[in-house]
Amino acid sequence: MSLELLVEAVVSGILLGGFYAAVSLGLSVAFGLLDVPHIAHPTLLVVGAYATYALAQLGIDPIAAGFMLMPAFFVIGVGLYRFYHALFERRGGDIALRGLAFFFGIAFIIEVVLILVFGVDQRLVEAAYIGSSVQLAGLQMPSRMLIAFALAGLLTLLLSTYLSRTFTGRAIKAVAQDQTALALMGADPVRIKQSAFGIATATCAIAGALLIIVGPVEPGMGRLYIGGTFCVAVLAGLGSMKGTLLAGLILGITESLVLTSLGTSWAPAVSFGLLLVVLAIRPSGLFGR
Amino acid sequence: MVKLSVNAIDAGYGAVHVLSGVSLEIRESETVALLGTNGNGKSTLMKCIMGLTPVTRGSIVLEDDEERIDLTTKSTQEIVALGIALVPEGRRLFPKLTVHENLLLGAFRAGARTEMQRNLDRCYAAFPVLRERSGQLAYSMSGGQQQMLAIARAVMSSPRILLVDEPSVGLSPMLVKQTMDMIGTLKRELGLTVLMAEQNFHETSRIADRGYVLVHGQIAFEGKNLQELLHSDLVKRHYLGA
Ligand SMILES: Nc1ncnc2c1ncn2[C@@H]1O[C@H](COP(=O)(O)OP(=O)(O)OP(=O)(O)O)[C@@H](O)[C@H]1O
Ligand SMILES: [Mg+2]
Questions:
Q1: How far apart are CA A35 and CA A239, in angstroms?
Q2: Predicted ipTM beyond 0.85
Q3: Which end of chain A is more exposed for a tag (fewer CB within 10 A), N or C?
Q4: Closest ligand 1 atom, CA of B89?
């Protein structure tokens, strides 16, 4: 591999990594902080992408659409958590396995609904920044990837500030560690988790907009992102937002280098391969406490 | 004036009956000891007061001037909001949060947020080691430091009534002494009312005004003052090795 090719691969890997971080931040909250086996997270991203598509049909800019959808997605997340809590979590037992089954079922149902509403064809949106690219330091960079990278940075900053600076944010960090202790601080653990799940789902609105900005989407696409998002959330050390950004970059760069040197057929193996290597060396993730 | 009274309560865990007909009273600015060896129901009583374990009979009443509030109908959040805090058995810190984050969580309840900075200064002044280690993760601290953090975290909620469940467990005799002294000092400085569950009668007697002895889920003895407790046959038999 020539040096020029290497630099190009690393730079596009960094940009791709920003995108991976953006789509994984919600999972870092739901799975990393709350311990909820939220396997439907990538499917909610796809819902965010289709909702963005629907708004774009009305002439709304896709990024603006992503932000506009956040409150609705927060409410969806709250509803989803309440449902999960009432039916599963509250009853105890082997919550990990039953939770996995619940969210798998949810993902499946959502996928079917998406097919019924939008059909199986690929959908995409149009905007000035989608086809264009920017010349930076002699490198050609697609504008849409730069936007994904910038939004990932912004989301990470907002989330980590919220989690460390607000009372609810700090309670979200604590709730999976000891619910009874949190109740003794005067917080209601169920309401705290509910807010956290709402926030995690709200990130799917913006990340979903990015998903359809980066490329066309189809209803079953969520399944392709299970490996990548869980890889990033675990790599991040379960629950660290800045760790999620760094883990996304690591996955992006690794994938880009593997694709450049070994060919695209290796793509699906990269995320799980990376996950296995990290779990073998450092089970608590790279940036975990 | 605040007064907490437990009136003939029964409580347990499903088919396991733990407390039967337990009554006790804690009046403003007292330090009351709840003595009892392993498994006699001290922690269960503490959890009943905090609304963590349901009470099947009797009442737990907080009297505040003219107001009478039955705590058995309240949630843990509501009880904490009334100014009652528990330093739980086993400390129950948030292990993967820093000392500082643990303390800030103590100030979660609405009534404590405005006093957060003042309480934080107080806690750091009372426990300088917590200030030195404010960025350290709670699980990585020694047992004594963890106990200090657990007490400080409860103080962060600006309580009027502080319940402390066996603070001496797992500590060296010297640390037990220090911990007791610290509870005594905080009580005086903050004007707290304290109920402390303990097995270590000797150390408890240094700060307690009076106490109760719990045996098999019933109050077996009530000492109206420290002298009465010291001379109780039960206490002599169980705690003083006589
Ligand atoms: N969650 C629970 N489920 C069932 N039984 C319990 C539970 N917690 C405590 N018990 C039982 O209740 C009884 C009283 O326990 P409790 O913890 O209140 O005693 P304690 O006086 O605090 O003892 P220790 O000094 O060991 O802390 C014990 O027999 C114990 O086995
Ligand atoms: Mg106990």
A1: 9
A2: yes
A3: N
A4: 27
Per-residue burial over B92-111, b if 16 or more Cβ lie within 10 Å, else e, is: bbbbbbbbbbbbbbbbbbee
Contacts of B75 in chain A (CB under 8 A): 188
Q: How many CB pairs under 8 A join A and B?
A: 71
Which element (helix H / strand E) includes A64?
Answer: helix A62-87
Give tens-digit pLDDT for A219-234.
999 998 998 999 999 9
- Which residue type occupies B167? P
CA proximity to A38, closest of A200, A190, A155 = A200
Nearest to A72 by CA among A221, A208, A242, A245: A208
Please name the helix (run of DSSP H) or strand (run of DSSP E) that holds residue A213, with its range, or none. helix A189-214
**DSSP H or E run through A36:** none
C-alpha pair distances (Å), A271 with each of A224, A235, A255, A256, A285: 11, 10, 8, 11, 14
Structure tokens at B236: 């002599």
Question: In Å, how far is B184's CA from the nearest CA of chain A?
Answer: 22
Q: How far apart are CA A172 and CA A195, in angstroms?
A: 8
Q: Sketch out chain A's domains with CATH numbers.
A: 3-281 (1.10.3470)
B221: phi then psi, degrees, rounded to nearest 5: -160, 140
Tell me, which fold does domain B28-51+73-239 have in CATH?
Answer: Rossmann fold (3.40.50)
| Residue A157 CA: distances (Å) to CA of A42, A72, A174, A199, A228 | 21, 22, 19, 14, 21
The DSSP call for residue A119 is -
Q: Map residue A52 onto helix, strand or coil.
A: helix
Output the pTM of the full model. 0.93
Q: And the tokens for B239? A: 């705690």
- Ligand 1: residues whose CB is within 6 Å? B 13, 16, 18, 36, 38-44, 89, 166, 199
- Taking chain B, what is the end-to-end CA distance rounded to the nearest angstrom? 39
- Domain map (residue ranges) of chain B: 28-51+73-239
Max intra-chain CA distance, chain A: 60
For residue A156, which of A17, A283, A39, A285 has the smallest C-alpha distance? Answer: A17
d(CA A20, CA A149): 9
From the list A224, A230, A248, A256, the residue with the least C-alpha distance to A149 is: A248
Other C-beta atoms closer than 10 Å to the C-beta of A108 total: 14
Ion ligand 2: residue ranges with CB closer than 5 A: B 42-43, 89
> What pLDDT was estimated at residue B76?
97
State in Å: Cα B12 to ligand 2 middle: 14
By C-alpha distance, which of A94, A35, A96 is closest to A234? A35
Q: Which of B86, B104, B108 sits opposite A187 (nearest CB)?
A: B108
Q: Report pLDDT digits (tens) over B46-86.
A: 999 999 999 999 999 999 888 999 999 999 999 999 999 99
